[in-house]
Amino acid sequence: xxxxxxxxxxxxxxxxxxxxxxxxxxxxxxxxxxxxxxxxxxxxxxxxxxxxxxxxxxxxxxxxxxxxxxxxxxxxxxxxxxxxxxxxxxxxxxxxxxxxxxxxxxxxxxxxxxxxxxxxxxxxxxxxxxxxxxxxxxxxxxxxxxxxxxxxxxxxxxxxxxxxxxxxxxxxxxxxxxxxxxxxxxxxxxxxxxxxxxxxxxxxxxxxxxxxxxxxxxxxxxxxxxxxxxxxxxxxxxxxxxxxxxxxxxxxxxxxxxxxxxxxxxxxxxxxxxxxxxxxxxxxxxxxxxxxxxxxxxxxxxxxxxxxxxxxxxxxxxxxxxxxxxxxxxxxxxxxxxxxxxxxxxxxxxxxxxxxxx
Length: 358
Hints:
The longest helix has 27 residues, at 91-117. The chain is of the alpha/beta class. It has 18 helices and eight strands. Helix 16 crosses helix 17 (308-320). Strand 4 (240-243) and strand 5 form a beta hairpin.
């Protein structure tokens, strides 16, 4: 296993991103949570925060909430990150840093949006960042899984960053008020403080390295890998993200479940999760469709007769269970069956069957 400089820490702005992610995608998180075998009910504080977001009629807040929900794997690069293990960055510090260093941070965010959300090649990304914007409008308009608010914000961020900065800072200051008034900030701070008291750097290093190895993610050894705690959601929906000179993993309570899934010895619970997901007709169709050759989401959606959003949800669960692998080819992401993983699961089932016979 290769050597990595892993820096576990806490960034409060990540909690806001996670909370907004639940604002209009609760059914998605509920479904994935069920598929992965854990239950999650928003507490009173998170419910109060979400209610304030939903009831606010301010256009800037609605835009930013949609952006945080739909492309949090990119806008997370608006954050600063701790430089030492166990470090913390408060929401006020993140807002001040954004106000002072928006241009540099926006480049990192735009780089991630173009490569990760719009699937541009790195060569195309470099051209766009150098000022060639000719291919951006068409790609943004074709991003069917993004709302009008999010596609508008992406276009503004690329073309008119100053206006985007004003919208973002206004919304963040309002969300900060909601975060405090709802009690969610105190709840998260108290629980994170408890976790940091019990902080064991070696343990989290081991978890992060095992996680990357299990999912076949190759992190850069020349850069620190930030392992960020968050308390708002059990399932963050964000595995690994990287842009320019930053790479990170968002740590959630579901890592306990992931640790069991990653166990080289297939446990009874892993088999139960596997059988639960194979019992789903759509997931089974997807696995059959990619067993012979890799396919991208549009192809799979046509084959199974469902929307791309629904297919993406099923692929998320199958990816968490490491039953599928993904490979990016230009502007498409191709999914294939993880046959090695499937063989281990089937051997586990065979062992279980033999034990039952005996």
